[in-house]
Amino acid sequence: MEKDILIELKNVSKKYGDNYVIKDLNLFVRRNEFLTFLGPSGCGKTTTLNMIAGFETPDEGNIIFEDSNINIVPPHKRQINTVFQKYALFSHMNVYENVAFGLKIKKLPKKQIQEEVSKMLSLVDLKGYEKRSTDSLSGGQQQRVAIARALVNRPKLLLLDEPLGALDLKLRKEMQLELKNIQQKLGITFVFVTHDQEEALTMSDTIVVLNKGKIQQIGSPEDIYNEPKNRFVANFIGVSNILNGVMLSDYKVNFENKDFECVDKGFSKNENVDIVIRPEDIKIVAKEEGHLCGEVISAVFRGVHYEIKVEINDTTWIIHNTKHVKVGDTIGINILPDDIHIMRKADSNEEE
Question: Where are the domains of the chain?
């Protein structure tokens, strides 16, 4: 195993009955990385997390942690801790006792326990809450206690299973930044599970997009958003206009009955392709100046921008723009070569 790789999953599969939840998964996580499993419900992300934690055992393949196979190592003997959506705090213990619990199990000296708990409560901004009952805390505060309890043991890997799911929107956004800040301060590897694309894009160094037990794409948030590998990824990450097209030659594509310059190459001549164009990359212009033009069928103000739907050649386009337009207007749209992303047509099994 390479020096900077902390954990590696090799050909890992898990099935319940005759159905595979995860099939032939290959993946590695680097030290000090914030990696996120992203996908819809039932895609296998929590099952993968549970196998890493030791709550589930792979039916096939191996999980390697620092060069050692940990397939049958029990959870309490792994240098891995988990924070769940339901924080599982001990309600009969106060904040201090919850955070100190793992250290007491290890029979560390009382003074050392006090020092470590104090450091962790300061890190999660709960200094002064030591004697508070966990039931008296808000959801965000309870989450911080759960994180402090997990981190005080200094695991090499922290697993987080949708820990922000129970929080309201404003608090969830605050905690996204706070979690990332904690991870960077401590230099601990985080593996995070979510179905929320914004969470994944905001927090992650690396995103693993899963669907039906298979990896669809691995990459940085920028790569996943700007260079989706297939229709599933393009649809799941953000809003996209996905169109049928024909690659005429390197750097030239045809869609909506018009030829466009693009930045893609390496396709066969006249190969059928999928075109992805993000709504925010489309420029609204006068109809006579547009590469394409069509009728506005809806315009909804979303706070930062208008979400505009335009009918062009029987295709409904979605545009995000700060310019106000009226329903019924005919407008032109322009698209730069950099904003046209070409994908190969998916094989029938590629997105399953």
Answer: 5-231, 239-344
What pLDDT digit, counting tens, does each position of 209-223 carry? 999 999 999 999 999
Domain 5-231 matches domain 239-344 at the CATH topology level: no
Distance in angstroms (rounded) separating the CA atoms of residues 277 and 234: 9
Distance CA 228, CA 279 (A): 15
Q: Which helix or strand (DSSP H or E) is residue 277 part of?
A: strand 271-277
DSSP 8-class letter at 230:
S
d(Cα 75, Cα 190) in Å, to the nearest integer?
Answer: 17
CA–CA distance, 40 with 207 (Å, rounded to integer) = 14
CA separation, residue 301 to residues 34, 281, 293, 320, 325 (Å): 34, 18, 21, 10, 11
Residue 5 in 3-state DSSP? strand
pLDDT tens per residue across span 82-96: 888 676 788 899 999
